Amino acid sequence: MSAQREQLWNLEYERAAHAPAGEGARVPSKTMTVNLKADLSRYDQKLELILRTSARIFADKSYHSTSMRDISRETGISLAGLYHYCKSKEELLFLIQDHCFGRVLERLEERIGAAEDPLERLRIFVDNHLSFFAANMAEMKVLSHEAESLAGDLHEHVSTRKRQYTRTARKILSAVQQAAINGSGRARRRNGHRERAVKPIDLTVATYALFGMMNWIYNWYDPRGKLSVGQLVDNITRLFLTGFLSQAEHATVQGGSGQAEQVSIWRTA
Q1: Number of H helices, E strands in the chain
Q2: What pLDDT does 181 receive?
Q3: How much is the pTM?
Q4: What is the dihedral of CA 2, 8, 10, 16, to 10 degrees?
Q5: What mean pLDDT is predicted for residues 232-260?
Q6: Are 169 and 211 in contact (CB under 8 A)?
Q7: CA 6 – CA 1 distance, rounded (Å)
Q8: Superfamily (CATH) of domain 1-87
Q9: Which one is the CATH code of 89-245: 3.50.50.60, 3.30.559.10, 3.10.50.40, 1.10.357.10?
Q10: Residue 11: what pLDDT?
Q11: Nearest CA to 158 among 199, 97, 202, 107?
Q12: Does residue 129 have a pLDDT over 90?
């Protein structure tokens, strides 16, 4: 929780500096920093318990149907104790979402830095996303279902994280697409073919289609089942890149009127 740790350190510093005079508060000195840093590990562990428990309850009951008293009962932490870590239920939801995006982005930066091949970068991106959320299914459901439950600055902060993550995915897909176009062009020139170039898939469609495939796993995937996370990553990556059918089979089902049917999709779960 390195990014979260820094936030917690700043939060504890501010709380110590601005606590009411009757509580023995004083502006933190250099000697206080040692004690505060030593306490961060315990603080982190307790906050981690609160966030994981809250995510599970939000996933089961929904954010709006959950009370702070529910979380207090499940964690075994008093209401007063909960409010030491967060000032509201909304802040809890914010911390869950912000921590998840922070960890995913942090892990991705660590893993993808040395990779240059576009396909390898995409595989790392998919693996990073799926391996994290396969271990945090409740958090994934909360991110999917409670995306608009935050308001104001908290909503904007999480939205900024999402946009950053989405831009990263789009950039990777753009590089994959360009590499494929370049490779196809060289192959046609070598073979003397004059086939019409295939129209590239729109990157916005591709980006959100990929997230749609990855983010829906909380509805059906069981990490303890017959399909390992590695197999899940391999199947989704190949399905996304090459499709469900081979090129030969695909040729028999191409076509369509070009007219899009107007369909309303209702999410009931």
Answers
A1: 11, 0
A2: 85
A3: 0.74
A4: -150
A5: 70
A6: yes
A7: 9
A8: Homeodomain-like (1.10.10.60)
A9: 1.10.357.10
A10: 44
A11: 97
A12: yes
